[in-house]
């Protein structure tokens, strides 16, 4: 039995759930990995010069044992997230530390502590097997998976599953991720695949869409409301392309920051009107490595006032971190919110706290999304209210190049990866609905 037989079953319209359940599973499959004995390979290099093409490998790996509450999924397509870039450059930490720590928690979790890490935190595919205790899903179901892995044995996470003390991001802090032909997930990560999308389109939004939903829309994040001025950094990037859609769909006013005329045009085509090209306008928030320039914060704030008719920002959608955080706090209005989920340019932030406390602003930390938020975010994709922002699709072999593009910020929106899917465009079940949204679905393609 090989993965080819699985693909044949997926591509045959006659295949039933019983056929999938009867398919013998292969002993091994192909997966994108980093290797534990290579974690020092980039020692001494600057972040920019660490090259994912050197650290990401395409390996044949053994199929992991299936445990209670889990599912093995045949992965048709996945996507590149920035967390895979972090794993591939071993920053800010090697992810093998996460696997070791997980492995120490219980007998079954030991499976994750291996000398290789199969990465990837998105997938669209077909359920192959479910473990004991799984009733909601069966072999043959077409699914996407969100990346929240929790144990739920502590009451801390019972209101908001992100607060579980054993909260992990699948394919980053656990093994057996989605950049592979087969993945192992907890069955509670599974959600229905949106019928009007191809495999690679369905695999693109998951992680970033759910994160943007919690960070911007959910009451656990900024709780955005109609009319809010929302400053969105990287508005045509992974997170930002969904934040921009949420702002527009929710009646808010996105102020989109981008770094090229092409990216500005993408935001305009999504429906945004207030756009700042940070490159063209030459903001330099730091005079040198240690010193910020408040005059530049003010110049940025003036530009925002020009675009809003004199108003300041209700919500900043933050993720660049060190480079922008001082400016983000400054331009927020009295009582406004800065919500942050990352620090791409550096995690030791500096801002002038007088502008925070005197103007009663709040900083909210946000990370991925709880089970319910991930489900609600996927529902919006399935209903055609929010659309994938897939620009380019790579083969599994070329994942290193795909991650390199994201690391160097030469991509747009999201970058997809075909795993078992032999070509793009497969897996669409609802052609009528797709036709209604075709322009929006293709907005980011091949630009
Ligand atoms: C969905 C996608 C998301 C993304 O893309 S996010 C971006 C990518 N992700 C990242 O860059 C994050 C990577 N993660 C990290 O950098 C680290 O993950 C953290 C810095 C978040 C945490 O580091 P750690 O070393 O794991 O954490 P500690 O909690 O400091 O644990 C070390 C020891 O310190 C103890 N400790 C924790 N809090 C306290 C306290 N308040 N007082 C005293 N001790 C404390 C712990 O218990 C433990 O101890 P013991 O080593 O003995 O187990
Ligand atoms: N905590 C969580 O749950 C999550 C965290 N993340 C983290 O968020 C970050 C962004 O992820 P994602 O959106 O997918 O990545 P992308 O690279 O797709 O998009 C980020 C965009 O931010 C802008 N940007 C990058 N650096 C700077 C800078 N120094 N100053 C201003 N703008 C900058 C760029 O846009 P432009 O050049 O056009 O301005 C870039 O396109 C990563 O660090 C990632 O790990 C992501 C998802 C979930």
Automatic annotation (TrEMBL):
Coiled-coil spans in chain: none
Listed CDD domains: crotonyl_coA_red
Domain Enoyl reductase (ER) intervals: 51-417
Originating organism: Streptomyces pharetrae CZA14
Gene3D superfamilies in alphabetical order: Medium-chain alcohol dehydrogenases, catalytic domain
Protein name: Crotonyl-CoA carboxylase/reductase
Keywords: NADP
């Amino acid at each position: 039995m090989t993965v080819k037989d699985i693909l044949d079953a997926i591509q045959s319209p006659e295949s039933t759930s019983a056929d999938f359940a009867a398919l013998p599973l292969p002993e091994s499959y192909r997966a994108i990995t980093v290797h534990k004995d290579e974690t020092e390979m980039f020692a001494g290099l600057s972040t920019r010069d660490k090259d994912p093409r050197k650290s990401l490998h395409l390996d044949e790996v053994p199929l992991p044992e299936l445990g209670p509450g889990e599912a093995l999924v045949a992965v048709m397509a996945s996507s590149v997230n920035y967390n895979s870039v972090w794993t591939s450059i071993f920053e800010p930490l090697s992810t093998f530390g996460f696997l070791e720590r997980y492995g120490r928690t219980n007998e079954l979790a030991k499976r994750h502590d291996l000398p290789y890490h199969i990465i990837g935190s998105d997938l669209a595919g077909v359920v192959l097997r479910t473990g004991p205790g799984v009733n909601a899903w069966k072999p043959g179901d077409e699914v996407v998976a969100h990346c929240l892995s929790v144990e739920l044995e502590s009451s801390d996470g019972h209101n908001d599953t992100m607060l579980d003390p054993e909260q992990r991001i699948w394919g980053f802090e656990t093994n057996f991720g989605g950049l592979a032909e087969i993945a192992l997930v907890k069955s509670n990560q599974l959600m229905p695949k949106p019928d009007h999308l191809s495999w690679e389109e369905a695999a693109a939004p998951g992680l970033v869409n759910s994160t943007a939903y919690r960070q911007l829309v959910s009451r656990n994040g900024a709780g955005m409301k109609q009319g809010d001025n929302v400053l969105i950094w990287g508005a045509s990037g992974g997170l930002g392309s969904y934040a921009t859609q949420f702002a527009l769909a929710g009646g808010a006013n996105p102020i989109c920051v981008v770094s090229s005329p092409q990216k500005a045009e993408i935001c305009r085509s999504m429906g945004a009107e207030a756009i700042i090209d940070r490159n063209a306008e030459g903001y330099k928030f730091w005079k040198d490595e240690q010193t910020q320039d408040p005059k530049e914060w003010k110049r940025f704030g003036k530009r925002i006032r020009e675009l809003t008719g004199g108003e300041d920002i209700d919500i900043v959608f933050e993720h660049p971190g060190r480079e922008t955080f001082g400016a983000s706090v400054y331009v927020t209005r009295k009582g406004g919110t800065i919500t942050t989920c990352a620090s791409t340019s550096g995690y030791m932030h500096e801002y002038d706290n007088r502008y925070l406390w005197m103007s009663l602003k709040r900083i909210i930390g946000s990370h991925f999304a709880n089970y319910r938020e991930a489900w609600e975010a996927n529902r919006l994709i399935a209903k055609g209210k929010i659309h994938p922002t897939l620009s380019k699709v790579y083969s599994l072999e070329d994942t290193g190049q795909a991650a390199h593009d994201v690391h160097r910020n030469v991509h747009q929106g999201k970058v997809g990866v075909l795993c078992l899917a032999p070509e793009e465009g497969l897996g669409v079940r609802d052609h009528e609905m797709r036709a209604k949204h075709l322009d929006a679905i293709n907005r980011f393609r091949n630009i």
